[in-house]
């Protein structure tokens, strides 16, 4: 028996209700009996180097001696790999023979007992669900997404007969999971707010979750808002582009995965979402994370928000005093309020626009046409003086998420996305245009990929007369 076969569970493809007691396994193997406890560490190191010790990180190789009298005296033994046979010295390495000959250890038979708690989610599900019949069939579901205590699956029809078994094992093997759900439709196809229908497979129907990301706490009802845990690296990637004191417009903010961390960085964020439930959670998350000085919340249509927020920011005035961090002691005498280290003044121009609605965000781009050409009370020529070369302020970067097909090099996809940007803006944008990048975010389906198109708003678009 090889080490790989040694740790596979027994198989029962007829199981309909999870029977944990079925997953018992006794493995007849060998062990090195260490006669002196002081030699345990040395023997483990030397037998690992000689490839005699059991190579499994999930099993503690140091075990109590199988003889009760030796156990009472603290006797220990070291598990050996299954290819080492206790009564066949030809299977021993020279190092194991040397240690046995000099009386440091003895090689003995050993029975290793494994149960349900040892085997992984992947191993248990593979043991109870029939494997794919053909290469074109879906693989046994191994991955899941986690939002707080809720694990959500998207099971193919082939696995529906096993869905409750899958959910129970998943919850057993992941201590953070209390509720397991299965999505019943595609996000965004049934509801404009990107919510979804679901069924509870295990645990309570409690979708009020709390989680942490980028050092921030988020609370929301997962059944009523959009959240994708797999986008955490994308949230962080964009937030790393924002600098302290910049103004950021988050057009489809959701519950705040971009807006709240940006506020923590002392960026002035105007965050908007059309979904009333998302807006409610956004307001709560702003308060929870103490970023009210930097993040303002809005609940309106994204296209309207793009135009209105740009005009309002030009005329608004807001500043935040940044005080030094001081230690407070109740026993210390009352002190005067410290003077601020610095004061951050909200800019009049957004440095970044975030548009994280990949199914349709790109269709909102026409709202940027003439963004600064028809601002009430401010002539376009006056606004132009706020930008380079008159100042160091550049026109804002737009970060718009979208879907496209997938290929190995993304060349065709980049071309298609740039063509669509050009069509929406009525202005030619190519991959070679300065400040343009098409970032591959993640795969979302076998033939579908999510991208983030980032480009600087062209002056010809921003000041076009309409």
TrEMBL record:
It is found in: Mitochondrion matrix; Nucleus; Cytoplasm. GO terms for cellular component: mitochondrial matrix; nucleus. SUPFAM superfamilies: S-adenosyl-L-methionine-dependent methyltransferases. S-adenosyl-L-methionine binds at residues 235, 273-274, 301-302, 356. One of its GO terms (biological process) is tRNA N1-guanine methylation. The keyword Transport does not apply. Keywords: Cytoplasm, Methyltransferase, Mitochondrion, Nucleus, S-adenosyl-L-methionine, Transferase, tRNA processing. GO terms for molecular function: tRNA (guanine(37)-N1)-methyltransferase activity. It holds the Pfam family TYW2_N_2. InterPro entries: MeTrfase_TRM5/TYW2, SAM-dependent_MTases_sf, TRM5-TYW2-like_MTfase, TRM5/TYW2-like_N, tRNA_Gua_MeTrfase_euk. It comes from the Eukaryota. Residues 144-459 form the SAM-dependent methyltransferase TRM5/TYW2-type domain. It catalyses: guanosine(37) in tRNA + S-adenosyl-L-methionine = N(1)-methylguanosine(37) in tRNA + S-adenosyl-L-homocysteine + H(+). It is an enzyme of class 2 (transferase). The keyword Methyltransferase applies. Its main location: mitochondrion. PROSITE patterns: SAM_MT_TRM5_TYW2. Its EC number is 2.1.1.228. Specifically methylates the N1 position of guanosine-37 in various cytoplasmic and mitochondrial tRNAs. Methylation is not dependent on the nature of the nucleoside 5' of the target nucleoside. This is the first step in the biosynthesis of wybutosine (yW), a modified base adjacent to the anticodon of tRNAs and required for accurate decoding. Belongs to the class I-like SAM-binding methyltransferase superfamily. TRM5/TYW2 family. Monomer. This is tRNA (guanine(37)-N1)-methyltransferase. It comes from Ophiobolus disseminans.
């Amino acid at each position: 028996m090889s080490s790989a076969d040694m740790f596979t569970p027994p198989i029962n493809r007829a199981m309909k209700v999870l029977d944990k007691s079925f997953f018992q396994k006794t493995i007849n193997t060998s062990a090195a009996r260490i006669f002196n406890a002081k030699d345990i560490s040395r023997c483990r190191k030397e037998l690992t180097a000689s490839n005699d010790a059991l190579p499994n990180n999930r099993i503690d190789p140091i075990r109590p001696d199988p003889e009760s009298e030796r156990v009472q005296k603290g006797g220990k033994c070291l598990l050996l790999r299954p290819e080492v046979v206790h009564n066949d010295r030809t299977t021993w390495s020279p190092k194991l023979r040397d240690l046995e000959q000099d009386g440091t250890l003895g090689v003995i038979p050993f029975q290793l007992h494994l149960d349900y708690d040892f085997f992984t989610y992947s191993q248990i599900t593979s043991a109870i669900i029939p494997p794919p019949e053909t290469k074109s069939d879906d693989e046994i579901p191994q991955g899941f997404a986690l939002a707080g205590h809720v694990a959500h699956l998207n099971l193919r029809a082939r696995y529906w007969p096993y869905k409750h078994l899958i959910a129970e094992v998943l919850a057993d093997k992941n201590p953070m999971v209390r509720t397991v759900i299965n999505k019943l439709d595609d996000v965004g196809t049934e509801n404009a707010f990107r919510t979804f229908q679901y069924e509870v497979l295990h645990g309570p129907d409690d979708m009020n979750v709390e989680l942490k990301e980028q050092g921030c706490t988020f609370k929301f009802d997962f059944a009523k808002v959009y959240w994708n845990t797999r986008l955490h690296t994308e949230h962080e990637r964009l937030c790393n582009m924002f600098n302290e004191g910049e103004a950021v417009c988050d057009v489809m903010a959701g519950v705040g995965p971009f807006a709240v961390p940006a506020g923590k960085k002392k960026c002035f964020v105007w965050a908007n979402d059309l979904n009333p439930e998302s807006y409610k959670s956004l307001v709560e998350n702003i308060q929870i994370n103490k970023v009210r000085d930097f993040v303002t919340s809005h609940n309106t249509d994204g296209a309207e928000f793009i135009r209105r927020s740009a005009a309002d920011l030009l005329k608004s005035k807001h500043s935040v005093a940044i005080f030094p961090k001081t230690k407070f002691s109740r026993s210390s005498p009352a002190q005067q309020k410290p003077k601020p280290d610095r004061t951050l003044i909200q800019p009049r121009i957004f440095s970044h626009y975030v548009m994280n609605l990949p199914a349709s965000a790109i269709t909102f781009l026409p709202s940027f046409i003439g963004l600064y050409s028809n601002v009430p009370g401010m002539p376009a020529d006056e606004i132009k003086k706020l930008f380079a070369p008159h100042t160091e302020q550049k026109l804002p970067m737009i970060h718009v998420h979208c879907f496209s097909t997938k290929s190995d090099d993304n060349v065709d996809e980049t071309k298609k996305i740039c063509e669509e940007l050009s069509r929406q803006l009525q202005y030619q944008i190519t991959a070679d245009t300065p400040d343009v990048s098409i970032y591959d975010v993640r795969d979302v389906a076998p033939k579908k990929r999510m991208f983030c198109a980032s480009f600087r708003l062209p002056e010809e678009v921003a000041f076009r007369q309409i």
